[in-house]
Structures are given as C-alpha cells and as structure tokens.
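User: Please predict the structure of the protein below. I'd like the answer in structure-token form so I can feed it into my own downstream comparison script.

Assistant: Understood. Taking the following sequence of 76 residues as input:
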Amino acid sequence: MLQKRKWLLLTFYTTAGVMAMERACREADLPGRIVPVPRSITADCGMAWRCEPSLRGQVEALVDPNEVMGIYELEI
C-alpha cells in the first residue's frame, strides 16, 4: 500500500491556467506536475498543479492570481 504524503495543490479555473503554471515552474526549475483534482476539492478544469509544500512561497510568486481557484495542502 502506498504511503500518504502531504502535497501542495493549486487548482485553476481553466486548463490554460494550469498549463501556464507548468511552464512557469519548468522555467524557474521548480519540480511539480499536473494531476487530476482529488474528489475532496473541486476545480472547474479538473486539473491541479501538485508540488512539495515547502515550495509554496516560490510557487505563489509565479501564479497568476486571476487564474488560480484555490491553494490547498492535502495528504494524498
């Protein structure tokens, strides 16, 4: 059985928003990936950006506040 782990998840209104986040993180050399949004939260586009919680400040500096729907720390 897989061990649950704490992750930072950013949800977006649009697919374009999550894709822009992926591009910005890649350019800033910040690790993370696009994942489906867990059932416990909702997002309009159904995708989220997942990364280590320790990167929260750096990731928040890159995100467009008009695109992000929510920021969560979840154990998944």
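That's the full token string. The two ends are 13 Å apart (CA to CA).
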